[in-house]
Specification:
The chain is mostly helical. The protein has 5 helices and 2 strands. It has a two-stranded antiparallel ribbon with strand order 1-2. β1 and β2 form a beta hairpin. The N and C termini lie far apart (57 Å). The mean pLDDT is 90.
């Protein structure tokens, strides 16, 4: 599929897709005319990349992680190294802290909302 179709199907800009390709996060063949031709599996891969970025992982860590994950229709994934597992545990702990912070913020908002509704 062409880059425009991949962008539409994943809601990711063409510019971001070119960046992901430059980083080696996704790959495309080239048509005789030089256009990118992405495989169907690129849709799931791009969505997974977006999820990992949303979780706060940087492109370098995503690049290390992706080969350890299966995309739909692909063969077995490489085994994660102990070093990668350790780095990912650090990321997981960071995300856990963020979740705790968000829950505390939500609790504060709930208190303010409850107080505001009780007054009126």
């Amino acid at each position: 599929m062409r880059i425009g179709e991949l962008a539409r199907r994943t809601a990711v800009s063409e510019r971001s897709l070119r960046y992901y390709e430059k980083l080696g996060l996704i790959g495309a063949e080239r048509t005789p005319g030089g256009h990118r031709d992405f495989p169907e599996s690129a849709v799931g891969r791009v969505i997974r990349i977006q999820e990992l970025f949303a979780a706060g992982l940087c492109s370098e860590k995503i690049g290390l992680l992706l080969p350890c994950l299966n995309d739909p229709g692909e063969g077995p994934a490489k085994t994660a190294t102990p070093e990668l597992a350790e780095a990912l545990q650090v990321e997981r702990a960071r995300i856990d802290r963020m979740i705790g912070d968000l829950l505390r913020s939500r609790d504060v908002l709930d208190e303010v909302i409850d107080e505001a509704l009780a007054v009126h």
